[in-house]
Amino acid sequence: MIKAIKGAKDLFYDEVVRWQALEKLVREIFENFNYSEIRTPVFEETRLFARSIGEETDIVSKEMYTFTDKSGLSITLRPEMTASVVRAFIEHSLGKQFNLNKFYYIAPMFRQERPQAGRLRQFHQFGAEALGSSSPSLDAEMIILAYEILKQLGLKKLSVKINSLGSPAEREEYRKVLREYLKPHYDKLSETSKVRFEKNVLRIFDSKDERDIEIMKDAPRLLDSLGEESSAFFEEVKELLSKAGVEFETDTALVRGLDYYTHTTFEIVSESVGAQSALCGGGRYDLLAEQLGGTPTPGVGFAAGMERILLACANEEIEVGKKEKVKLYIVRIEKELKNKAFELALFFRRHGIKTELDYLSRSVKAQMREANRIEAEHVLILGGEEFLKNEAVLKNMSDGSQKNVSLANLEAVLKEISG
RNA sequence: GUGGGUAUAGCUCAGUUGGUUAGAGCGUCUGGUUGUGGCCCAGAAGGUCAAGGGUUCAAGUCCCUUUACUCACCCCA
Q1: How far is the CA of A189 from the C1' of B58 (A)?
Q2: Strand B and chain A: which residues 241-280 have CB closer than 7 Å?
Q3: I need a labelling partner for A301 at 20 to 30 A (CA). Which of A45, A150, A324, A399 fits?
Q4: List of domains in chain A
């Protein structure tokens, strides 16, 4: 048997209903905040991700689906969306059309990791990117947006963590300070942290190794060494969040894994999923556009993992979405009437009534059972003596009542069903 | 990439210290009188017990290998 690729899932029936409901909510909220949807190709030139996400990151160094196409070009299935959005922004000179561009997306991403709860190889994210403003109100808006969606879904066990990585200069300065602090402890660090010491010191904060955590406990914090401007920026973000009623905590150890972040970074975690508890994360990336060869343009964004969100909803027993019931099921008694039934079904369907009928030449009893199974609201029974009078029986399935209706006046039947 | 767990019907799972034709619930299908659902009743279909090898008179059950799934590490959304 040929099966789906590891870490890639088929969705159908009830599961799809949940996804559609989530997508609908996401769209509504993004539209309210006046974000417009952006769609970019699922694959890009490999160097786009190498340059933006960072060569040394795990994503780029070992998790990408990369292949060479027939022209010899190295292509990669996108592992995240920010790089693509910024690429499109630069390619189409969108910054020259509008000073501020606010985009959202709902799209599949690909990373070749070992699947586990809340982590797939083809996974789906919704997210937003705002390019062109360095106002802290946008940083706050991103967090509020993400929070709003999760709240409106009904999720409870959430915590919002925020931090600031400061300006690039401050970050660079802090790197030195941190290295200085770590030097005497170097030998006690875990192997991965030793590597990070050279390549990306900040990431040592992410370590779960107990000895690393012990060492990092007393490490100087980037947040404490921020300049006046960066501090004021961060304060304003926090103030806006407080006014918006978003409860958050400052987590000085929150260092995001992607190289392009500056200033605000944030994460919303849930207790209701497994180990992969981050439902969404993001931050500001003022250097990225320039880094990708565009004119310097400040940006902020976030991405949220849809599988994780739905998993959290399921674990908190939140029902997401409801399937629309069939309004009318057409039962035919005599088999010769099957085309008449088909024709009638088409009439109702064309008038916006969700209609179903038998395609399996089944008995009347079986057709009724089917109508009941799919919870059809009404059944129209076609045949017998009523049909000779150009009438049919319309049955209300919830109370079992039925009445004869004229097939010469389908408008009246429409009214009956819709009312 | 490294660990742990699991693998029996479409789904959720039983299957006793290895012992005859492998079970249940749900789901599906048919019927319980002519043209009517739900509840109930009766019946049916559906399984190379993940695959391969080994031990044994005898393996779903014990051992080995492989594969898949799953959880965790790692990383991240």
Answers
A1: 58
A2: 256-258, 267, 274-280
A3: A45
A4: 14-166+226-315 (3.30.930.10), 328-418 (3.40.50.800)
